[in-house]
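explain this:
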Amino acid sequence: MSTPSSSPQIAVVGAGAAGIAAASALARAGYAVRLLERRPYVGGRASSYPHPALGEVVDCQHVLVGCCTNLIDLFTRSGAAGSIRWYRELTFLEPGGRASIFRPGWLPAPLHYAGSFLQAPMLSLADKRAIARAMTGLLGGIPSNDDEGLEQWLRRTGQTERARRHFWEPIVVCTLNDSFQNCSTRHATHVFRELFLKSPASGRLGIPTVPLSDLYAAPARSIESHGGVLQFRASVERMEPAPGDRWRLLGPSLDYLADAVVLAIPFEQMQRLLPNLPASPEAAAWATRLTRFVHASYTTVHLWFDREITPLHHAALLDSDLQWIFNKSRIRDLPPAQGSYVELVIAASPRYLAMPRAEILARSLENLSLYFPDVRQATLIKSGVLKEARATFSVLPGLDSSRPSPKSPWPGIFLAGDWAATGWPSTMESAVRSGYRAAETVASSFGNPQTFLALELPASGLMRLAPQ
């Protein structure tokens, strides 16, 4: 790999997935990189932290799937891939415990889930016909624009009420963290196609076996191994142009000069920086587009029991406010003597933000017992509720035109973040893609073109003949 003739000083602001990806790519390419993070740990919104009352390290559950090629690339290069546990099965549970298990069979893609789909008791024959009709329409590809809302697509394809509740809703809410009304058809159908049609490898589920900040610590360390610097508690509160086409980054404990800056921060933090950046008509138009972004919230409930309540590692929970259970004791292979630690996911949960934690806990335990009766006999040792008001952004219909490219209105400033124009919804994969794209744009600006984006996972079976 070629390296720049000199070593420009590159500041990357934000040590979430996007910032770590940008910094690691640029450090590998030989640039002098300084990764600035306002908190004392890495991961951004995909981070973990010691909970003072629980005496545990907690996080809001994040997962990846086989089609997340750039996220997998980031972990593989840093040696963190061994901290991902992969699953080929998806289990959907109804109240009472009846299970529908989706696993790839011997048929080629896009038919690899056909056997499981036809046998799934959670769906009637009419439900299955409606879903199959909609999926068949995706064989030719997903919509080229994001103008249509998912609710409209579901009505247009004649989805039954049960198909919506037992199939489309669990997938949409858990992957896009939002309601049908707030999701564009383009992004939702992209998820459906990758998970269920493209190939068995594309839809496999990866769950971290370590806390999220530990997971991202490996690629952060790799930045340092290539000569980069990771600086914690370095909050950037304003930026000023400096002589020599440089930028001065200022904060309570920061005064740093950079030849280029990658702002790998959420859109709301970007909005706070805007008043201190040079004004121009282009910058004003760009700022106006940012106002279209809105947050989607995410709630998780953490429960420690004195005994195991289920041997399942994970499952989608149907007909409940709870969308998913992750049995972290099983996923992490914790000793049985430590009891049982499970995490419950309540995605797209704006009404839970104002709800008292005690009420959330009571509701969650009652709902959980409908699927796992052993909850009633188990002793709850401790519990915690995490509310993330700004967990993701809503992929609203028509929002793609407002998602920015890596180039900003200000020379020498580049952008990264899951909210940038990546073609993906608000996911860790989108964040890493944006970081790699920003790094490519930075390298090109210094006359040293590089390719950091990983290749897409290829289609398999008959899907190799379908438009990609």
In short: The first helix runs from residue 17 to 28.
